[in-house]
Design goal:
Number of helices: 16
Oligomer: single chain
Largest sheet: 3 strands, antiparallel
Structural class: mainly alpha
Distance between the termini: 27 Å
CATH topology of one domain: Preprotein translocase SecY subunit
Length: 380
């Protein structure tokens, strides 16, 4: 690790890339504090200060925006539309063979997928920003745990609402562009770094909040729990089941190929963070409906059973996370394709016949691993 920091100082190109990445992240965090036009920030800050004294407002979706959603900034939607668009593109390859063909075309095909992901991102940003603006007009609602803020939008008009929608959509497009800049000219994956920056930016404020409510002992326990949780996540994320694969020797002309041993790596958490994002987004929908709907019954049901500290909400969240872990793994990893490719190139699993028996064996192992991985995601 120390050698890596030393390389940043010694290698000019690496130093430029790190500086560029930090500058883009700083620009992103600056934009997260630019106010959205049309919002009464006096009323908003008064409400947030009162809520902090009572224990704080928590929003799963706002975690990925670094608090920009609750603060009503131009970056309120964050990177969520892009994440959703990327997931949609992965799901569409199951029903649209053309997308799967693009994946096999290399860099050219990836450019087409990236372009369509951008289109979907803008469309989703328009839809989500419209919903957010309607909620702001109605006082916030789901954005603030079911609480409404009187006068949050003092002078609602069609023109102002269209301006707010355009601003939020442009903010998401700008974040998407920043992420692509980091990927192209900086260090690491731009979108992942932006999500990381958004999450980490909330830690100091949460630490102060815990210290004010629980004192030094409470803050220490939270920090220790966080460190242990990080170690547990890293341990599980690095865990994998390696299925041994052997390739038979074959002669082409005067050359002999094959005769090697390798393995198929199956991660414990094959689906990554996608199931959590799916579950969070779907559980946010009832709050969205209650904010827009005038039905008292719907609002009462959401406020009583679908708040984050409610046992019903927690059970639904865990159940949906487990379900989407299996669902997404089944879509992104096809044991039949793996078995066919192995058979095509002369590969086989020792003790397992090539073809369908191999696919069934891989599917059996994958199901067992995904069960453990889904329970891990639910616990996290």
């Amino acid at each position: 690790m120390l050698r890596g920091f030393a390389n940043i100082v010694k290698i000019p190109d690496l130093r430029r890339k790190v500086a560029f990445t930090l500058a883009i992240i700083a620009l992103y965090r600056l934009g997260a504090h630019v106010p959205l036009p049309g919002v009464d920030y006096g009323a908003l800050q008064s409400f947030l200060e009162a809520q902090q004294q009572q224990g704080g407002v928590t929003q799963l979706v706002s975690l990925f925006t670094g608090g920009a959603l609750i603060q009503m900034s131009v970056f309120a939607l964050g990177i969520m539309p892009y994440i959703t668009a990327s997931i949609i593109m992965q799901l569409l390859k199951v029903v649209i063979p053309k997308i799967e063909e693009w994946q096999k075309e290399g860099e050219t095909g990836q450019q087409k997928i990236t372009q369509w992901t951008r289109y979907f991102t803008v469309v989703l940003a328009v839809l989500q920003s419209t919903a957010v603006v309607v909620m702001i007009r109605n006082g916030g609602g789901a954005l603030f745990g079911g609480n409404s803020i009187p006068g949050l939008m003092p002078n609602p008009s069609i023109g102002l609402m269209l301006l707010m929608i355009l601003t939020l959509t442009a903010g998401t497009a700008f974040i998407m562009w920043l992420g692509e800049l980091i990927t192209e000219k900086g260090i690491g994956n731009g979108m992942s770094l932006i999500i990381f920056a958004a999450v980490v930016s909330r830690m100091p404020g949460l630490g102060v909040q815990v210290f004010a409510g629980k004192g030094t002992v409470g803050l220490t326990l939270v920090l220790l729990t966080g460190v242990l949780l990080v170690f547990a996540v890293v341990f599980v994320e690095l865990g994998q089941r390696r299925i041994p694969v052997q390739y038979a020797k074959r002669t082409v002309g005067r050359r002999t190929y094959g005769g090697t041993e390798t393995y198929i790596p199956l991660k414990v958490n094959q689906a990554g963070v996608i199931p959590i994002i799916f579950a969070s987004s779907l559980l946010f929908l009832p709050n969205l409906v209650s904010s827009i709907s005038s039905s008292v019954t719907v609002t009462r049901f959401v406020n009583e059973y679908l708040q984050q500290n409610d046992p019903v909400f927690i059970l639904l969240y865990i159940a949906m996370t487990i379900f989407f872990a299996f669902f997404y793994t089944a879509i992104t990893f096809n044991p039949t394709d793996v078995a066919d490719n192995m058979k095509k190139f002369g590969g086989f699993i020792p003790g397992i016949r090539p073809g369908r028996p191999t696919a069934e064996y891989i599917d059996h192992v994958l199901t067992r691993i995904t069960t453990a991985g889904s329970l891990y995601l639910g616990a996290i």
